[in-house]
Structure to design on (64 residues):
């Protein structure tokens, strides 16, 4: 992806991401995909609940 640079440590493990903001404006769709991946990765260890449990929770909160 243009405008995204991974910065690695001494052992070549990716540690940081540097994003060129000018490129960011030119490739909005790719940025949205990148953000989706970051969000998914940050939630990978979250507790999983079934669809039925989620529907019940949303109903009890008045959101469904």
């Amino acid at each position: 992806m243009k405008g995204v640079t991974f910065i690695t440590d001494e052992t070549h493990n990716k540690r940081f991401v540097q994003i060129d903001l000018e490129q960011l404006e030119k490739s909005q769709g790719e940025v949205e995909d990148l953000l989706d991946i970051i969000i998914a990765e940050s939630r990978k260890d979250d507790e999983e609940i079934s669809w039925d449990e989620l529907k019940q929770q949303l109903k009890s909160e008045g959101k469904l």
In short: The longest strand covers residues 14-19.
